[in-house]
Amino acid sequence: MSPTSSSPAPQDPSPASAGGPDGGSGGGRSGQLRSSGLRPGWTTGACATAATTAACTALFTGEFPDPVTITLPKGQRPSFALAVEELGDGRATAGVVKDAGDDPDVTHGALVRATVRPGPAGSGVVFRAGPGVGTVTRPGLPLEVGEPAINPVPRRMMREAVAEVAARHGGGGDVEVEISIDDGEEIARHTWNPRLGILGGLSVLGTTGIVVPYSCSAWIDSIRRGVDVARAAGRTHVAGCTGSTSEKVAVAEYGLPEDALLDMGDFAGAVLKYLRRHPVPRLTVVGGFAKISKLAAGHLDLHSSRSRVDTTFLAGLAAAGGGDEELAAAVAAANTGLETVQLCAGRGVPLGDLVARAARETALGVLRGAPVTVDVLCIDRAGAVVGRCEPTGPAGRD
């Protein structure tokens, strides 16, 4: 056991580390990451899963695996060194130091701990928020009020890890998993958690287990190279995606190849400005509702630290879409973008479609008449489409 170390950050989050499908330099998300020269890291969800796996193994066997290996949602099998090993009466605790790679992540270096205890028969895996992990206190998030702020994908990863360990060692799968993060409550003051009603600490996040780093200059350059690769391959349709879930939706909806996928992250403006000078006939923008709502409001940098969801703007869209004053007021007071969608859906107002159209207008404005047709898809955290608009070119602007 090392008292301070964690495993090296992944050198490439994509299984296609040698390039595109043909083994060349390739495009798409993995090609962009390689060309950026930035080192990816691990999410808090991956670290919590590694710690849970080690603690669960020790609970069943009395021994901590070090390093501990886990399976990420895309099938990668990274290993993590343990920074904490504690075996007590009816419990085991393991800890992993988070390495966020080259991403300016406030949780870089944080010690993520998991304490696993036996649970009542039939309880399954029950999650608890330990010190430094927040609790949900307001509606609108993908978790119920009162739940630990451990997001759905990390929960699934930990459940699967517990099931795997239990099957291997003949233990039961009924356990209590308590996740804690050293100094998490103080670190959380530098995040949006307090404004979102997540109190007491940080959220355990991640959809792939891997943190893709964003240096503005390096990532914008990688976006440009992604467009160049797509154009050189003769692609007539590209998708600007905010993350891996958006990419999956783009592939499912349109059957786009990897080199037609532009991992724009938060840099919508970079995609649009480069396509203005180097056009591709069709651009589909795909992203989470909250990020697309920022684009709809005219923001070209979608990062949470530089722009946030404007519920007053969304209330105006809801009113323009047929919502009454009561609905508009509820939207304006909503806690999250997801909550505004749910409120409007209950009243028959297609807020997702209205946001998609407004985002398309922002995009066309930035393109300034370039021969690019634009459509937009808004998705929720699970990848379900909650808003869309038809492709429109510069001559057909609303």
UniProtKB/TrEMBL annotation:
Annotated InterPro entries: CbiD, CbiD_sf
Q: According to its UniProt record, which reaction does this protein catalyse?
A: Co-precorrin-5B + S-adenosyl-L-methionine = Co-precorrin-6A + S-adenosyl-L-homocysteine
Q: Which SUPFAM superfamilies match?
A: CbiD-like
Superkingdom, taxonomy of origin: Bacteria
Q: Where is the composition biased (Gly residues)?
A: 20-30
Where are stretches of biased composition, namely Low complexity? 1-19, 31-40
Q: What is its EC number?
A: 2.1.1.195
Region annotation Disordered: where it falls in the sequence: 1-40
Pathway(s) served:
Cofactor biosynthesis; adenosylcobalamin biosynthesis; cob(II)yrinate a,c-diamide from sirohydrochlorin (anaerobic route): step 6/10
For this UniProt record, the keywords arranged alphabetically read as follows:
Cobalamin biosynthesis, Methyltransferase, S-adenosyl-L-methionine, Transferase
The UniProt similarity line reads: Belongs to the CbiD family.
Tell me the PANTHER family matching this sequence.
COBALT-PRECORRIN-5B C(1)-METHYLTRANSFERASE (PTHR35863)
Q: This chain belongs to which protein, by name?
A: Cobalt-precorrin-5B C(1)-methyltransferase
